[in-house]
Amino acid sequence: SWFYKWLLGVTPLAPGYAPPVAAAAATAGGANSSISVRPSGIGEVNLTRASGSVYTPLGDVTVAWALNTTTRRLDLNTTIPPTALATVGVAIAAPAAGAPKRAADVTITEGGHPVWKDGKFVPGVAGVLSGALSADAKAVDFQVQAGAYAFVVSL
């Protein structure tokens, strides 16, 4: 259980991963996410990669992340099952990568296209509905639709 919740960061945002009401989700820009993907432990105690799959009533959520401590690059790949909306937290700080960068200094791409630059969400990537700095300023939280995503950030 700790592996899925902490290392992969997969947790329900609604009881039983209940899917959001379609109309509310469409108007809220994904604010009614049913799944959270926010890996923890990145770069801690020499931990540089993890991967796995979590069964949910909506389908499997897959997560794979890898941190290259030499290049300070973090790759976070995830697949969100059909009918689900998710919040995906992409870390902008990792102990093994040194001091965290300011959100304004970080560029995050998805599929090679920027989704976060100069401290702001960059719209235009299919399935990525919005992005905002997390409350703890250690990640950027993206609201995403069902699908496969490949986020990359240089820490």
Sequence-ordered SSE layout with sheet pairings:
Layout lengths: L1 H6 L2 E3 L9 H6 L7 E3 L11 E8 L2 E10 L4 E19 L16 E3 L2 E5 L2 E2 L6 E6 L5 E16 L1
Parallel strand pairs: 2-5
Antiparallel strand pairs: 1-2, 3-4, 4-5, 5-10, 6-7, 6-10, 7-8, 9-10
Describe the structure.
The protein is mainly beta and 155 residues long. A hairpin with a 2-residue loop joins β6 (108-110) and β7 (113-117). The protein is built from two helices and ten strands; from the N terminus they run αβαβββββββββ. Mean pLDDT is 85; it is low at 23-31. Strands 1, 2, 3, 4, 5, 6, 7, 8, 9 and 10 form a ten-stranded mixed sheet that branches. The longest helix is centred in the N-terminal third of the chain and has 6 residues, at 2-7.
- Could you give the order of the helices and strands? HEHEEEEEEEEE
- How widely separated are the two ends? 28 Å
Major sheet characteristics: 10 strands, mixed
Strand proportion, as a percent range, falls in over 45%
Helix content: under 10%
Number of helices: 2
Can you tell me the residue ranges where pLDDT is under 50 for at least 5 consecutive residues? 23-31
Principal-axis shape equals globular
Tell me the radius of gyration.
15 Å
* Overall pLDDT: 85
Q: Number of DSSP strands?
A: 10
Structural class of the helix and strand makeup?
Answer: mainly beta
